[in-house]
Amino acid sequence: MNTLKKKKNKFIIPTVCIICMIIIVVTLYIMNNTLYKSLDLTYGNVSKYTITSGSTGNVYDITNEEINNIIEKLNDTKVKEKDFEPTTGWTSYITFSDDKGNSHRLQVGKDRIEYDNVWYKIKKGNGTLYDYVNTLEVKYFR
Fold it and tell me: 73, 106 in Cβ contact below 8 A?
């Protein structure tokens, strides 16, 4: 009877360990994915959109189609609020006003964005906004 109890313990301990590891992995996965969110912005009645060069300070008007693409890609980008160390420069930022006349500023980096003076970390694999803003920089700055 004692050997039966030892065999049972040999089976129970690894099973409990495996179950605990599964619970931990699932919990970490859920926490990681639920911490990221979309900003869900909508700006239907915006009259002027601009992109400003970080190297020259020149300001260029961008089209409604371009800002709609930016907002769509921004809303598709998963982010979470995060404090970053201050940076010394920027390549560009985009400004636009909402239908209430409030001005908004968007700065996009590879791994982060700044929207209205709040920094957000971009979830890995969400680089379409950065890529699109780069195409605008090429179009307007070079």
Answer: no
pTM: 0.68
Confidence category of residue 13, pLDDT binned at 50, 70, 90? confident
Compute the chain's Rg from CA coordinates: 24
- Each residue's pLDDT tens digit, 89-106: 778 889 887 667 778 888
Amino acid at 60: Y
Under the phi-then-psi rule, with left for phi > 0, alpha for psi from -120 to 50, and beta for the rest, what region is 89?
beta
Q: What letter would DSSP give residue 110?
A: S
Of 14, 64, 70, the C-alpha closest to 44 is 64
